[in-house]
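Subgroup meeting minutes
Present: P.N., E.W., G.H.
Scribe: E.W.

1. P.N. recapped why we're keeping a running log of single-chain structure predictions: easier to compare across weeks, and new members can see raw inputs and outputs side by side.
2. G.H. added today's entry (287 aa).
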Amino acid sequence: MAPYIFMEKNGIHIIDLHKTMAKLDEAAIAMKQISKSGRKILFVATKKQAKDIVAQRIKKINMPYVTERWPGGMLTNFPTIRKAVKKMTTIDKMSTDGTYDNLSKRERLQVARQRAKLEKNLGSIADLTRLPAAMFVVDVSKEYIAVREATRLNIPVFAIVDTNSNPNLVDFPIPANDDASKSIDLILGYVCEAIEEGLAERKFEKEKEISAKDVKKAKEELDESELKKLRLDEEEEEEVEIEEQKDVASKILIDVDEEEIEAKEVKVIEEIKKPKVKKAARKRLDE
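Output recorded in log:
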C-alpha cells in the first residue's frame, strides 16, 4: 500500500485522498459499464461497520449482496447454492398451495426455521441466477475467501483496501479506511450513483430501441397501406380504361351498323326507281 500512503503520523498511516479519488472514479466508470450491460455486481461486506450500510444502499439499486457469513463455495460451487435458493422458493410454494397446512405443528416449525435461515444467508442473492459479472468487497483481508473464489473464476474484484491489505489481490483497489462507517458509506454512495446512471442509460436505450421498432413497424404498415391504395387506384384506372374502350368499341359498332343501313337504304331506293322490281323493293324497304 506504500504508493497510496501520503504520510505516517503517530504510528498511523494517512492515505493520499487524491489517489483515492482517482481510483474511485476508475472503479465507478467500470461498474457503470457493467450495470449498463445488464449484468449483476455482487457486494460482499460481513463486517459489523459495513453490514447495514451495504444492505441499505444496495437494496435500492436491486443488486445482490452478502452481509452475513460468506458461504464457502458460493461462486466455485454455484449450482449447489442455487439449489438452496430453490429450496426457499419451494417452501414458499408450500405455504400457498395448502401443503403447509397439512403438516404437523412440529414439521411446520422446522420448515419455518429452515426458511428463516435460508432467508438470512441467501435471501439477498435470490435474484442471482448466474455468476456475477463483478464483485465489490469492503475489506479484502476479512473477505479473503470471496476474493480467492472470484480470482479463480476470473471475476473482476472491486475493493476498499486499507493500509493493512494487499491491493494487488484485486483488480480495482480503492485505498480508503475500511473500518470507518462514514468512509464506507461515502464510497458506496458514489459507486451506487454510478450504477444507477448505468441502469438509467440502459433503460433509456431500451426505450429508444422500442420506439425505433414502433416507428419502423408504423412505417411498414403505412407503406403497405399506400401500396394497397396504389393497387386500388391502378385497378380503378384499368376499369375506367376498359369502360372507355367498351364505349369506343360500341360506338364504332353503332357507326358501322348505321353506315351499313344507309348503304342498304340507298341500294333499295335505287332499286325502287327501277320499274321491274318496284314491289319487291318496297317490301325489302319495309323490312
